[in-house]
């Protein structure tokens, strides 16, 4: 059997059975970044983009994406998240928006994929809302920052 748990003894992909795992408090935080032209950054910062409140819509999109991760990522379990926090930090010096998402639940499996998906969709939403002004935006550095709970223990990016 593969050390990757999403494969069975025949090597076929499968959804992992988490039914026997204990319920525990779990939390994951992920982050990512979208960099843009200074003029585009000013539109986002000032709330003057033609499509409206870019960060407000991106926050909502991130929350919705976290809740729908199992519909987007094959073999992910549908989870009843208890909290989703989407935060933005504006970096004027680099004309970038840092996106940070924390997801929480009491459950049998972790929430890393939900946090990572939420960051990705929030960044894509910013891109979509600003692409008329700047098609050269760059989305990147999407990463897990921390996770806690569950059998595999805690992780914190150094």
Automatic annotation (TrEMBL):
GO molecular function: cyclic pyranopterin monophosphate synthase activity
A Pfam entry, by short name: MoaC
Location of the Molybdopterin cofactor biosynthesis C (MoaC) domain: 15-150
EC annotation from Swiss-Prot or TrEMBL: 4.6.1.17
Residues of the active site: 128
Keyword flag Lyase: yes
Top-tier EC class: lyase
GO biological process: Mo-molybdopterin cofactor biosynthetic process
Keyword check for Lyase: yes
Reaction catalysis annotation: (8S)-3',8-cyclo-7,8-dihydroguanosine 5'-triphosphate = cyclic pyranopterin phosphate + diphosphate
Keyword terms: Lyase, Molybdenum cofactor biosynthesis
Subunit details: Homohexamer; trimer of dimers.
Family: Belongs to the MoaC family.
UniProt-listed NCBIfam families: moaC, PRK09364.1
Function as written in the Swiss-Prot or TrEMBL entry: Catalyzes the conversion of (8S)-3',8-cyclo-7,8-dihydroguanosine 5'-triphosphate to cyclic pyranopterin monophosphate (cPMP).
Name the UniProt record assigns to this protein: Cyclic pyranopterin monophosphate synthase
